[in-house]
Amino acid sequence: MRISDASTAYSLIGQLQNLKSRQSSLEEQLVTGKKVTSVADDPALGGTLLNSQATRERLVQFHTNATMADNMAQSGVDTLSYMKKEIDLSLKVAESAQNSTGDSAALASQIDNIVSGLLSAANTSYNGDYLFAGSKSSSDTAPFSYDETTRQYVYNGSGEGRQIEVASGVTVSPFTSDDQNQQILNALNSLLSLKNAITSGDADAVATAADTLQSAQDGITEASSDLGTTQSRLDLIEARNASIYTNLDNAEESATNSDENEVTVKLLAAQNAYSASLQGTAMLLRTSLLDYM
Asked: Where are the domains of the chain?
């Protein structure tokens, strides 16, 4: 065989291998419905898909964060609602004390029970985080406790609650503010004052304690409303994140899905080209062998 014929033969064999590879790729596309199965298939598109995947992973984490924040906010709303109802009850007790329509010892005992329930609510935690402790939500110390020395309740929390990232560059806090937590403290101490006033039979002191308690309740109502606003904001952020995720999914599907009819036509063409090339190569090799005869 002449060198030129050998080179041609090797070239044709290489072409056959390329055509076979092309045929196999099209067959895989027809089976999977995907024109890209790895980054190597299309480096540029592969890079885009990797970026899309990373973005979607972040969106999944944002969804987890937003769900946690919403649950914490809802727990705060539920707890504050309980506090408001207990304060409403205590104001009715105060009214009874002012009108002398009840036994003072029994009324004071009612206030004691309310204080106990309110203190427990004030120290509510969610997944290990105190809801009304500000920046000390993960502290081992409960945010509200009774000081035996001053005979008053004290607030052990501080500052504002932590922010949680729920979208790219967007954070929310599912916690009440420092001022609102102080209103809870005021409610507890106003209840103590109310109990003492009822016990001593001081109608003026009962009225003063009731007014202070009403003011604290207004602050608690505001705190509940703010948490509700946070939840509404989270709903909007979640809807936007979901839309971004869906758009990424649709873009990836459009970029990677193959057209069955188009692939079928290309596969038939590749099969024909491979068959023709195979025949041509066989004829060339047979002709070359005759040179030695």
From this structure: 3-35+258-290, 49-250
